[in-house]
From TrEMBL:
Chain ranges of the SIS domain: 123-261
Top-level taxonomic group: Bacteria
Family matches, as SUPFAM superfamilies: Homeodomain-like (SSF46689), SIS domain (SSF53697)
Keyword Transmembrane: no
BP term (GO), one: carbohydrate derivative metabolic process
Coiled-coil region: none
One Gene Ontology MF term: DNA binding
Keyword DNA-binding: yes
Record protein name field: HTH rpiR-type domain-containing protein
Organism: Propionimicrobium lymphophilum ACS-093-V-SCH5
PROSITE patterns, alphabetized: HTH_RPIR, SIS
Keywords noted in UniProt: DNA-binding, Transcription, Transcription regulation
Record PANTHER family: GLUCOKINASE, HTH-TYPE TRANSCRIPTIONAL REGULATOR HEXR-RELATED
Species lineage: Bacteria, Bacillati, Actinomycetota, Actinomycetes, Propionibacteriales
């Protein structure tokens, strides 16, 4: 694998000014960058946390957590302030548990650092007006899809989850302009999801995506995009990717509750 600082140096001439500021700051002192939170790095580069996150994705990484991890490895250490791990007096199982907790917490933190609150508010209002909702959640995304389904059902919205492509695509054509289609994924494998969403849009439905990139094919065909941080390469099983989506779903739950309370006031 190409060292992270070499990768940044290679792409430097192609970067926008705001991204270049981030890159130059990292290259000037990689260990310091590795020890910085996303807020600290953004402030030092006089830019936004969203720019830092998108810069990490621009150089082919999943997000800020992975960039920070690789910078620390390259510097010969793993640094993270209060996220730092220790193995003193601990067995292998407890060390793994702390590492997993670290990855999950970082995923949630990165998700909220890149959250578009305006898009979240618009998505909540769309869902609050929906008569029916279809959720297309293939493979492991079904777990999160069923959680969202329960949240919407509790709010009084008729909701169905489709875990396989054929059923979802067939159902999408039955939607109307009062309905909402939701595509959920924690990976970049979204071709089938895009087909279902396009079918739902052609039928008149609104569409929302829960995905891990603002630039994914799925994000380009929906009305609103709710982006969560992808799993770090250090997460061998990828489970941390869904923690950010669950956090976003809890935001949807809170927002719909607030809308209900205000309408009854």
């Amino acid at each position: 694998m190409i060292p992270i600082t070499e990768r940044i140096s290679n792409i430097l001439p192609k970067l926008r000014p705001s991204e270049r500021s981030v890159a130059e700051l990292i290259l000037h002192n990689p260990p310091k960058a590795a020890a910085s939170t996303i807020s600290e790095l953004a402030n030092a580069a006089f830019t936004s946390k969203t720019t830092v996150m998108r810069f990490a994705q621009r150089i082919g990484l999943s997000g800020y957590s992975q960039m920070r991890y690789l910078l620390a490895l390259e510097a010969g250490k793993r640094s993270g302030h209060d996220w730092e791990l220790t193995d003193k007096g601990a067995d292998a199982l407890s060390i793994d548990a702390r590492q997993l907790a670290k990855l999950q917490l970082e995923n949630i933190r990165d998700t909220f650092n890149m959250l578009d609150t305006k898009s979240l508010e618009r998505a909540i209002r769309i869902l609050a007006k929906a008569k029916r909702v279809q959720i297309y959640a293939p493979a492991d995304s079904a777990v999160v899809g069923f959680f969202l389904s329960q949240v919407l059902s509790d709010a009084g919205v008729i909701c169905v989850v489709y875990n396989d492509y054929e059923s979802g695509l067939a159902a999408a054509s039955s939607l109307m302009d009062s309905d909402v289609a939701i595509g959920m994924t924690g990976t970049d494998d979204v071709d089938n999801l895009v087909s279902s969403i396009r079918c739902a849009k052609n039928a008149g439905a609104k569409a929302i995506a829960f995905t891990t990139s603002y630039n994914s094919p799925l994000a380009n065909v929906v009305d609103e995009v709710l982006v969560s941080a992808p799993a770090s390469d250090a997460d061998l099983f990828g489970g941390s990717a869904f923690l950010g989506q669950i956090a976003l779903i809890n935001c949807v739950r809170s927002g719909m509750n607030l809308l209900t309370a205000s309408s009854q006031a």
